[in-house]
Amino acid sequence: MPLSDTTFLLSEQAQLTPTQQALTKCIATFIKAHQADDQAAVFVLHGDAGSGKSVVLNAVFTAVREPGMHLLVNHNEMLKVYKEVAGMTPGVLKKDYEKPTPFINRMQKSGEKAKAVFVDEAHLLLSQSDPFNAYHGHNQLADLLQLAHVVVIVEDFDQVVKLKSHWDRQLLDQTLAGHVVESAELSQQFRMQAASVSNWINAFVQKRELLPLPKPHDFNFKVFADGQPLYDWIQAQDAQKSLARMIATTDFPFRVFGDKTWWVDAGSLHLPWDKINFTDRPWASRPETLHEVGSIYTIQGFDLNVAGVILGPSLDYDPESDRIVIDTSKFEDQEAFRKRAGLGEAEKQALILHVANILMKRGRLGLGLYAVNKNLRERLLALQ
Fold first, then answer.
1. Which positions make up the signal peptide (predicted)?
2. What is the pLDDT of residues 93-124, one digit of tens each?
3. Which range of residues forms the domain containing residue 359?
């Protein structure tokens, strides 16, 4: 599937709203004014999932790009999207896009300083050392501030999914203290074609409330009593609209390495987890992945037309309090919970809700839900 068939549009030809166009010019002016500063100046772009942060960031990057400017993203699948778009954008090179760790290690070794560094999904930057992945510092954003004249970042603290990449407003302010900082926020939802569904998801993940399901005319929102009918629906949606995929919270056993196939069981549904994608094409753009279940590691940052989301065992509903409840012991992504000083149960619960938020906001035109736990499933069906 060529990139033009996907809905993840990053190219400079992508249609920007007047607000996005004005913001693009504002950031470009900021870069020009500070690219000779000795101490890094920082532009911070805040925004919810689907608010167009990546589109604006890449629009600025392609507009001002010159040697010594780099765009970084700490996510393999998003990096593939960027490189695929780069191959279709005149004057932009695939090597201009890379992950933060190799960039930091290379620049520290050379002693060079970049004119500007752009960081997408900055909430995925490491905020502690990770020797296994060759990062020996303690804060990747702090390192980048030493390696560039200008740093432009986009962030959403509600998309933090690992304790080793734990960010919040306090840590961001602490890291940027003493630097020239400007910021802006994108609040309009561009991915999901129904604000009412986005608001429903926000109540779920931010307040742990379950509201009656909205029924927008331009968005297909359904709850299923079993995983197999959800999968059947996704296949039908893919045939009609393309880019429909099954995705799930990381509540099902898996290991990153090895040849063993790991499975997601959701009612009568039995589908394999996604595997490490060694191709240069994003997971969701490969037709064979229609018969797999994706995770945040393959879908974060990517737009689907329709998302079939399995809410796993860590997410449940308590009828007495009428609230979503979290059981962190049932969350299988132990890498996300790697021990971190000063962070505990509250942060773990927040990460699980962040994962649910990311997954439920993937679809532009539709969202199907199946909950493994009976209480949550029955409550969702009743609200439908």
1. none
2. 889 999 999 999 999 999 999 999 999 989 88
3. 195-383
